[in-house]
């Protein structure tokens, strides 16, 4: 076997084996011998750590020196092309230090603008880590370049070197353990157990701490930033910002904004500065550009000049070559604030057209993110994309996470779109998730069906059953929003008794917790399905509650006054035993028919005209019936017919000797749920109240009238409906 030191002496000049640090005088020989090295030393040489000055006595020092240099030459041959482009190794700033100044070996293998071993060969003093003032100790000048540990080895070594990144398996294992952490304390404990960490892993850890600690616009426990482990991690990111990967750099910057670090802290300033340099060089991928954009929005808002430069870079990319991840990332960036005020609308239009072509390949997160962006950006002209995304959502209904399903349903409500295939998918899925999903998700489901006037018995029955068991954990808003669709669609589930007993119990226990308008909406929904909250009406008509109702918004709008009026009318008509306070006249309305949201539905114009022609033929003249009559009881009649005591029809203008009034309700399709022939709650209570007020109510539903083919059939039909017991004479 050849002696190691003897072999080395044959290929390196003798002065390499003198004691003392390596200087610039040694660099020419080092470059000249950067060729292939045999495998003997690669397999058998043991790594010896460099110290501040490598001074070992005699032959042992020579042997160690030779082995270390050969190993570094081998690494340089393998990685030099990555770190220094061909022909530029001699021009790098790292090799242009003054002659005779000690040179850090680690600097030969990196592209940093300065020595990365602050406590190594140059014995530089520990730098001030901005406002974080993190105290660190660097170890192992080459193999742990970028490593950091606190005193007493209380935190993990943090490796930023691209030569020795953790394996994919190690990163995945770290990610899985990080996701399982349920508190920032567990995250920090995990960090102390990790010996090797990449910059992306470090950034991911910071994001996880932010997930645990974010509370609105601040941290639940700001002292978490003073933890030694986190301070050391941030300090290392600050010191080695120039050596971070693009992905690690922008992710770390975004994590800093999520942790609400001072924008003028040294860490944030250095990360922003380095990001600007990378952006100028055009080194970032689309996904990285979007991550950087999110961070810049958090730091400076949409007016940031660097953000405009970033968007110019985004628009230069070929849209047809974007991946789905990149497409959704750009949507997210525009949604976050870059696209506010109609900015970049041309880019959005192009994205919409491209997104339609790739919708079939979108996974559940992508579908929900794009729909959410369309809502925030109010892209009402993008209905083809909304419809396409809705069709894709049908496939993903069983696979949506709670938050994703909520975003999808919220977007469909915003754009006013529904799909019967989606309804069928929800009917299969909701009974399985009603007892286990997040309360807000279940609430969103009910809001969607209520807003779109879709009565699905499987969905409503499942939610009603879960409500009985889970309502105690719901917020007052969630309680109201789950009950309101039952009232709006006029549907009582099989366990209606249990449901409304639960509602009553919640009102007794948490009455003062309800916001005034939320409480009014809940009580009004109850009366639509003939559930009368007599025990709470007196509190609603109380002066103090009405004052709160006024203070909650800018005055009391007409819909609130209409709800109060109808609630009071219901109590007077259907609860004659009520003896509580009355609703003051100033809070009452004269008509329930108001523009926009109304307690009545306008009559369908086309259907009304057909019925009017038939009534003229039936009664003999237009003067014998009145249209759109406002009653003293706030309701508007589609058609009113007056009869005397003998049953003869009186002229509509007559006001005396009226024995009976007939209210003809011409019910178009908008007065019913969209998928059944169930009258909406507001139409059902109107007809119920009219009967209690003495009117004879005649209902003419659209689905019966549409079956009539000619005038004769129309007249015969109207006669049977309005005068079922009389014989019709021919005029």
From TrEMBL:
List the record's Gene Ontology CC terms alphabetically: mitochondrial matrix; ribonucleoprotein granule
Q: Where is this protein found?
A: Mitochondrion
Q: Locate the RAP domain: which residues?
A: 662-720
InterPro entries per the UniProt record, alphabetical: FAST_2, FAST_kinase, FAST_Leu-rich, RAP
The alphabetized list of GO BP terms reads:
mitochondrial RNA processing; regulation of mitochondrial mRNA stability
State the Pfam families in the record: FAST_1, FAST_2, RAP
Q: Which PROSITE patterns match?
A: RAP
Q: Which domain of life is it from?
A: Eukaryota
Q: Which UniProt keywords apply?
A: Mitochondrion
Q: Which GO terms describe its molecular function?
A: RNA binding
Name used for this protein in its record: RAP domain-containing protein
Q: Whose protein is this, by species?
A: Coregonus suidteri
Q: What is the lineage of its organism?
A: Eukaryota, Metazoa, Chordata, Craniata, Vertebrata
């Amino acid at each position: 076997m050849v002696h190691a030191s003897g072999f080395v002496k044959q290929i390196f000049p003798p002065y390499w084996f003198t004691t003392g640090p390596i200087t610039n005088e040694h660099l020419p020989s080092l470059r000249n011998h950067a060729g292939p090295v045999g495998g003997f030393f690669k397999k058998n040489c043991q790594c010896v750590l460099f110290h501040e000055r490598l001074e070992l006595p005699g032959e042992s020092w020579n042997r160690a020196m030779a082995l270390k240099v050969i190993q570094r030459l081998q690494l340089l041959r393998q990685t030099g092309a990555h770190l220094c482009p061909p022909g530029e190794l001699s021009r790098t700033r790292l090799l242009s230090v003054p002659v005779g100044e000690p040179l850090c070996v680690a600097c030969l293998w990196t592209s940093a603008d300065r020595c990365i071993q602050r406590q190594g060969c140059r014995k530089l003093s520990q730098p001030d880590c901005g406002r974080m003032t993190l105290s660190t100790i660097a170890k192992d000048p080459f193999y742990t370049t970028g490593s950091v540990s606190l005193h007493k080895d209380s935190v993990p070594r943090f490796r930023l070197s691209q030569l020795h990144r953790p394996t994919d398996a190690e990163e995945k294992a770290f990610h899985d353990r990080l996701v399982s952490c349920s508190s920032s304390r567990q995250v920090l404990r995990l960090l102390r157990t990790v010996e090797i960490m990449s910059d992306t892993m470090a950034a991911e850890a910071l994001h996880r701490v932010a997930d645990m600690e974010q509370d609105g616009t601040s941290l639940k426990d700001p002292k978490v930033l003073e933890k030694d482990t986190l301070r050391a991690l941030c300090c290392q990111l600050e010191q080695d910002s120039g050596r971070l990967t693009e992905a690690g750099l922008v992710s770390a910057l975004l994590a800093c904004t999520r942790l609400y670090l001072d924008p003028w802290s040294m860490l944030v300033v250095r990360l922003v500065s380095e990001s600007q340099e990378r952006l100028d060089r055009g080194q970032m991928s689309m996904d990285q550009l979007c991550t950087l954009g999110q961070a810049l929005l958090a730091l400076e808002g949409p007016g940031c000049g660097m953000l405009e430069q970033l968007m110019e870079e985004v628009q230069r990319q070929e849209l047809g070559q974007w991946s789905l991840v990149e497409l959704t990332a750009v949507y997210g960036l525009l949604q976050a604030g870059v696209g506010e005020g109609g900015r970049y609308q041309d880019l959005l239009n192009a994205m919409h057209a491209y997104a339609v072509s790739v919708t079939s390949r979108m996974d559940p997160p992508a579908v929900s993110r794009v729909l959410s962006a369309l809502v925030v950006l109010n892209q009402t002209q993008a209905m083809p994309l909304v419809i396409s995304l809705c069709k894709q959502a049908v496939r993903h209904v069983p696979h949506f996470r709670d938050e994703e399903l909520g975003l999808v349903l919220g977007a469909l409500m915003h754009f006013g779109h529904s799909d019967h295939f989606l309804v069928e998918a929800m009917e299969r899925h909701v009974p399985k998730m009603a007892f286990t999903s997040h309360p807000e998700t279940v609430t969103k489901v009910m809001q969607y069906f209520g807003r779109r006037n879709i009565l699905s018995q499987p969905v409503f029955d499942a939610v009603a059953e879960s409500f009985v068991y889970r309502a105690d954990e719901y917020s007052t808003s969630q309680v109201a929003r789950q009950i309101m669709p039952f009232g709006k669609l006029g549907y009582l589930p099989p366990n209606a008794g249990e449901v409304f007993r639960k509602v009553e119990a919640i009102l007794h226990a948490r009455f003062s917790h309800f916001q005034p308008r939320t409480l009014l909406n809940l009580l009004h929904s109850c009366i639509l399905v003939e559930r009368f909250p007599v025990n709470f009406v007196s509190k609603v008509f109380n002066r103090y509650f009405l004052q709160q109702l006024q203070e909650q918004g800018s005055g009391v709008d007409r819909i609130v006054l209409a709800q109060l009026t109808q609630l009071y009318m219901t109590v007077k008509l259907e609860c004659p035993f009520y003896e509580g306070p009355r609703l003051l006249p100033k809070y009452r309305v004269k008509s329930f028919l108001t523009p926009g949201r109304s307690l009545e539905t306008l009559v369908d114009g086309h259907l009304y005209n057909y019925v009017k022609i038939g009534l003229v033929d039936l009664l003999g003249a237009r003067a014998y019936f009145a249209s759109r009559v406002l009653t003293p009881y706030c309701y508007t009649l589609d058609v009113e017919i007056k009869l005397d005591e003998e049953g003869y029809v009186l002229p509509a203008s007559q006001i005396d000797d009226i024995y009976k009034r007939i209210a003809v309700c011409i019910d178009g399709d908008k007065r019913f749920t969209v998928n059944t022939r169930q009258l909406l709650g507001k139409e059902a209570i109107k007809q119920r109240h009219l009967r209690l007020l003495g009117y004879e109510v005649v209902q003419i539903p659209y689905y019966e009238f549409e079956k009539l083919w000619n005038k004769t059939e129309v007249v015969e039909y109207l006669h049977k409906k309005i005068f079922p017991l009389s014989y019709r004479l021919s005029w």
